């Protein structure tokens, strides 16, 4: 049951006075208004904005001046959390920084092409990288892949994300353009997840609560890799 | 599913709602909160009018070329391995979902909040064939347990208090729970996690479909849609055919307009952009993805200069929060899936027949909905035009018709007018006190049971005029 595409589209085109398949008239307005694209953006302003917005959404952020310090920082964070139920992207995932030593030390369960999703059911902490992060909104962007399963950051109560300062883009539009490019190259990920803070709901008498389905805590460990 | 107010017309349902103190307070409190937050966030964001303008331009262009963008969207989706279905009616869409469920021998489905699935009563159709459907949005889960329908398109359980929620959860689980928000939410997390793990099918709506890439964008604050589409093996997307946007650049505009208008949030917590099912080398995500594109009365609005713009709607709910009528009576009184000003316009347009024809009258026509709408839909003008059409097609109550006929006759002739006023003045005598009629009975009771009606004065202006002239002349 259902109708075929041609009939369906004809029923739309006709009242619009169009012939199906005809190209649209040229657009006068695409995307955001000029006031948004014309803003100044520097690395320093991006970093400051990301930190402000990310923490404003109850995200926790630590900054490190070297890879060595970041690894030590991750060690400390995991110690403080005090759980040994740790999961992480696979070794060949697009990690922005190599934290293999720490993950091995903690015997983190790793996500591989053949992983059984159910093995991650009882994970408390999920450690991932990200494809970029957005300064305007404090958003982390994660693309799915063979070694970067969605389960790793969607299931646990705590999500720790590793990133470099140079991965910050100014706007949501900048991040979305990367998806368009990936699509053009036939490489768009099946899932691109834009995460802004912890899972939340105000459905019970307007009283905000966190961690309803997704993580209740999101922590970012950022390498300040720019002058 | 039922609504707490099941009377057949909006007037009676509104009366019931007005008598429910908790409901009125809860609706007031929530809508005030959402409205104030929206005002604060859009003020801080700046240039809000430029964003609204842009939102309107994009929606206008998209809908005016909808066949083109839908075609592009469908082709890209298919290229990414998704199955695309087209449904002219709600029955067709439900049938397609049931066929997929049957082919998968599905027993259980999880769902994230979707107004389109409410529109086509999908849960009911699936349950009839033995598929158990569980809503995963916390608010939707609550009202599903209560056997009710949503009363707000963004905050569905606006009308339930924490004691009622605890009772529902306890009845469902047999567990003892407190009324603490944290405990109730933790229970929902535990419980629903099991549902995701055992479901055969995940059903979501679609906030926006992106033609340029063949992607589905889904917005949630809880993160439930992400689990619904990633954990079960089959993901079914139901979308109204108008949900499409041409490009990712356009999505940026709506990723600002939607959360800011809906809940006053600068950004939605989770935006998932799904482009096809899991790739061959991935170990999670749905293996199969079906996208069902639904007409169900929408194409009737195309080419109609009065109503085409209703398809620009992005279902943000901002018009509900500012509507003086919605704020008094809440969502169930509308008796339709879509409440508030958007519901009052859309429901009679999508549905033929008499059912929703009283909804265009559930408005004071103040225009607050238009001011709040992020894509500038002139809802108040549309309500007037719907009323005009109803009158033109004879959909008027006999009493109202008779009243207007009498009005025309009386006001069309000076002699008749004077005589009528004289008689009415005498007849009002037992009902009028201190210059007002406040009676709960009598010919104007429809008005005076909830408002005062000014009584006819002892003398009309016309009767006073000769005397005024005399006095004026005397003084001169
Ligand atoms: S009509 Fe406008 S304000 Fe109302 S739900 Fe639709 S987009 Fe939002």
From TrEMBL, chain A:
InterPro entries: FTHF_cligase-like_sf, LUD_dom, NagB/RpiA_transferase-like. Signal peptide: none annotated. Residues 81-219 form the LUD domain. This is L-lactate dehydrogenase complex protein LldG. The lineage of its organism: Bacteria, Bacillati, Bacillota, Bacilli, Bacillales. SUPFAM superfamilies: NagB/RpiA/CoA transferase-like. It comes from the Bacteria. Pfam families: LUD_dom.
Automatic annotation (TrEMBL), chain B:
The keyword 4Fe-4S applies. Keywords: 4Fe-4S, Electron transport, Iron, Iron-sulfur, Metal-binding, Repeat, Transport. SUPFAM superfamilies: alpha-helical ferredoxin, NagB/RpiA/CoA transferase-like. Residues 303-334 form the 4Fe-4S ferredoxin-type domain. InterPro entries: 4Fe4S_Fe-S-bd, 4Fe4S_Fe_S_CS, FTHF_cligase-like_sf, Helical_ferredxn, LUD_dom, LutB/LldF, LutB_C, NagB/RpiA_transferase-like. GO terms for molecular function: 4 iron, 4 sulfur cluster binding; metal ion binding. GO terms for biological process: lactate metabolic process. Pfam families: Fer4_8, LUD_dom, LutB_C. This is L-lactate dehydrogenase complex protein LldF. It comes from Alicyclobacillus sacchari.
